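Quick question, first post here. What does this chain look like in 3D?
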Amino acid sequence: MFVDSHCHLDRLDLKPFDQSLDKALDTARSRGVSGFLCVDIDLDNFEAVKGIAESHADVWCSAGVHPTADDHGPLDGEVLKQLARSSDRVVAIGECGLDYFRGDETRELQLQRLDTQLAAALELDLPVIIHTRDAREDTLDRLRPFADKGGRGVLHCFTESLEMARAAIDFGFYISFSGIVTFKNAAELQAVALALPLANILIETDSPYLAPVPHRGRSNHPAWVVDVAHFLADLKGVSADELAEATTRNFYDLFSRATPGPIGMSSAGAVS
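> Answer (accepted):
Ran it through. Tokens below.
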């Protein structure tokens, strides 16, 4: 069984599924996907992701603010913690992090938001989901003391260097690969994936974004995490079953408040 460790179920294009999220999830389940982490990117949409998680026994969610989320000013840590405590389906803080791809004009705001979310994760004993892009030094500088205090997490949708991956692993973090690793122009990222042990990796779709080959250019959905898994298994010379077992075990080790439940339960079998 596979787990999609990072997807945005509140943002999926549901036209291919008759506008039904349950049908989209059932399609993934039919391919062997047994769990989904629906990731929050802005506190304004937290209730939507929480509602999805509370309506499906195999879906969990996070609470957090993406570094490039619409500017609502500095993040209020007390509000974040209140939301994270509002449901036992919340198993992580994030996605949070730093993104200087289009410049670092918002660097100070991004750093404040990240610091606030790291502090909340420590207080709540939750792992963090880290988004990092063109911000290697600042990201590692923030994660080092966080890890020293017992913090844990994952660098999601990883596209950075092997050196950064190894540094994060030394901190106790996992590295998650999305459909980007399947792209023809991703040789450097493929080399990173090849070099990392199975014990340190997760798989994800980041759907509806970044559909893997052979679906590139289409709106992504969780069933295609299996394509990411098969590509990585072939790349690393292991069976898909071995990769599935390792990445699923890693998921539940990191997101320890997520516990495997009955597969296929939707709103008719909502979680109380």
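Residues 263-272 have pLDDT under 50 and may be disordered.
The chain is about 40% helix and 15% strand.
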